[in-house]
Amino acid sequence: MQISNVNDVKIYNLSYGKSLPEWLSDRKKRQLQKKDVDIQRRIELIQDFEMPTVCTSIKVSRDGQFVLAAGTYKPRIRCYDTYQLSLKFERCLDSEVVAFDILSDDYSKLVFLHCDRYVEFHSQHGHYYKTRIPKFGRDFSYHYPSCDLFFVGMSSEVYRLNLEQGRFLNSLQTDAAENNVCDINPVHHLFATGTSEGKVECWDPRVRSRVGLLDCALSSLTEGAEVRGLPSISALKFNGSLCMAVGTSTGQVLLYDLRSSEPLLVKDHFYDLPIKSLNFHQPLDLIVSADCKIIKMWNRDTGKQFCSLQPQTNINDVCMYPDSGMLFTANEDPKMNTFYIPALGPAPRWCSFLDSLTEELEESPESAVYDDYKFPVKTGPKGLCCLVLLQVKSMANPFAYEEYRKEKIRQKIEESRTQRVQVKKLPKVNKDLALKLMEEGDDEAEEAPRKKKGKVGNGILGDDRFKVMFENPDFQVDEQSEEFRLLNPIVSKVGLKRKKKLRLLAQQDAAEDEEPEGKASSEEESSDDDKSWVEEVREQRRLLRQENRDRRRQERKDADRDTVLLDRGQNQEKTSQPQFYQLKPGEEFRSFKDVAHKQKLQKASLEDRLKMEESSGINSAVDTAVGSKQLTFTLRKSEQQRKQQQAEREHREERKKLRRAAGHLSSSRGRGRGGRGRGRGHY
């Protein structure tokens, strides 16, 4: 609920605050109501008092029990029962509603004018009849004595539909090209229509002839006003037998006495926007006029403003609840606003608690923002001193207002961001553990409402005693340690068991009666889980033993290698004599043996160098800070490879023994060739 004070008039916005999404479950809604302060202060006067997208018009039945609203999308009509403070029914329509009216005291007889020229009648059970008018309609009025419906729209004719006979009657021919609005006087039933040329034509339904013509466009012009176009009539409302209010498309409201062609009063909204709604408040002699930006209440005799309302979204329609200080607005927003002004009258009978609520709020008034401030005027010595101070302030910080404006914009953006999905920030130390605790806390929070006693605390993350565990790197959990690997299967299975238990509790709340077969299956699952974590612990123990053996074997190898290198170094110190080697420019020194080997390779031929590399096997050099280490090794052949090589050698020896000369096989063409081939052609 939002409280505003305009001209010392308290205005209570009962629909102010956050609205809960429809897709949330009841449990989630209850949790939000407990946590969010704005939702706790929200007053839901009528349940689901909103439309899916936009509300176009709203009305109250004559008995005051039902509130009907038309909106989109999809086109629909909703009826709310004020005695039950909830939605009574909802009916979807084929097209959008331009205007509708309630013909009975309750919701049993309704008429809808659609945007596609159709006129639809509804009874208490639903759709009753549907017909069509020749031109697109904009407004209609019902004449109770003759049961006639008068339709005005994009035509110079006023169509008449008699509901008693069930047929169209002769139309009323006006001088206008188009008619925007119409109304019927509740006392003497004078019919008036507002035209697009800024005129109001009055007709007598008994004789079907025009009895008066008012030129409101010319009367709406005031001194010093800029004329931008011809104002048309956008709103029309009768009050009593002689008073009529007319609203124009340029934002003026003209108050007429039917006995005079000149307006009694002209009220300007100063927004240059069409007047959309006009209402009369009889107890205080007020006129309630509204455009799409603001609702103004002003005295009908003097034009003095009583108060004003400015919703956050554009206004489509305004409806005053009879004999009370409550009014409803249809907006370009899913939510339909409800305002309560105690100065206009008491609260309706179905929400009489609002009177006691507002009285309690008025008994404990809050200090205004500027109660402790004094504002000196510019005239006088004090004012001159203040002007000097203001100039000094502006010179010292010329961008103060811009900084203030940017800060306000940043605050608005932060407020809008709070409605988005909040990302939980993880600590720098033990992120996996913190994420696991957050997930467990969310699961416990979801199951907490089902428990009869106990509340969910903040847990380890919210406890200051464990704060260092997520800040100090010394407390980082080593997942490769032996203790962690042995305990992790047990801890993970305990977490899975907790989640399964929470799911079982949820199923028990959904269905209280359980069969005994379900218990047996849960016992089998628990036994399988026990076996699974035991196997995991055994596997971890086996892996740890294998890693320990490998580590000890590697340590022994490293110790043996260090011992051999140490012995070699001691022997070399005893037997070696100092030798000198010359390093060429650009040559990198690695070790003395390496330098001698390079000098030897440079003097040898390519064939000798290749033979030396083949004889040395595979060489591997590793550079270190103190020189290089060179390892020489040969590949060990397997038993099968040795057997295969031995068999090949034996086969070659056997073939050599069977070799003989082939000289006797030479051709008869010459002995010389045969003799020369004798040395080559044997096998």
UniProtKB/TrEMBL annotation:
<feature type="domain" description="NUC153">
    <location>
        <begin position="463"/>
        <end position="489"/>
    </location>
</feature>
<feature type="compositionally biased region" description="Basic residues">
    <location>
        <begin position="670"/>
        <end position="683"/>
    </location>
</feature>
<dbReference type="InterPro" id="IPR001680">
    <property type="entry name" value="WD40_rpt"/>
</dbReference>
<feature type="compositionally biased region" description="Basic and acidic residues">
    <location>
        <begin position="636"/>
        <end position="656"/>
    </location>
</feature>
<feature type="compositionally biased region" description="Basic and acidic residues">
    <location>
        <begin position="529"/>
        <end position="565"/>
    </location>
</feature>
<dbReference type="Pfam" id="PF23098">
    <property type="entry name" value="Beta-prop_NOL10_N"/>
</dbReference>
<dbReference type="InterPro" id="IPR036322">
    <property type="entry name" value="WD40_repeat_dom_sf"/>
</dbReference>
<protein>
    <recommendedName>
        <fullName>Nucleolar protein 10</fullName>
    </recommendedName>
</protein>
<dbReference type="GO" id="GO:0030686">
    <property type="term" value="C:90S preribosome"/>
</dbReference>
<keyword id="KW-0539">Nucleus</keyword>
<dbReference type="InterPro" id="IPR056551">
    <property type="entry name" value="Beta-prop_NOL10_N"/>
</dbReference>
<feature type="compositionally biased region" description="Polar residues">
    <location>
        <begin position="616"/>
        <end position="626"/>
    </location>
</feature>
<dbReference type="InterPro" id="IPR012580">
    <property type="entry name" value="NUC153"/>
</dbReference>
<feature type="domain" description="Nucleolar protein 10-like N-terminal">
    <location>
        <begin position="1"/>
        <end position="364"/>
    </location>
</feature>
<dbReference type="InterPro" id="IPR040382">
    <property type="entry name" value="NOL10/Enp2"/>
</dbReference>
<dbReference type="InterPro" id="IPR015943">
    <property type="entry name" value="WD40/YVTN_repeat-like_dom_sf"/>
</dbReference>
<feature type="region of interest" description="Disordered">
    <location>
        <begin position="507"/>
        <end position="584"/>
    </location>
</feature>
<dbReference type="GO" id="GO:0000462">
    <property type="term" value="P:maturation of SSU-rRNA from tricistronic rRNA transcript (SSU-rRNA, 5.8S rRNA, LSU-rRNA)"/>
</dbReference>
<comment type="similarity">
    <text>Belongs to the WD repeat NOL10/ENP2 family.</text>
</comment>
<feature type="region of interest" description="Disordered">
    <location>
        <begin position="607"/>
        <end position="626"/>
    </location>
</feature>
<dbReference type="GO" id="GO:0032040">
    <property type="term" value="C:small-subunit processome"/>
</dbReference>
<dbReference type="Pfam" id="PF08159">
    <property type="entry name" value="NUC153"/>
</dbReference>
<feature type="region of interest" description="Disordered">
    <location>
        <begin position="635"/>
        <end position="683"/>
    </location>
</feature>
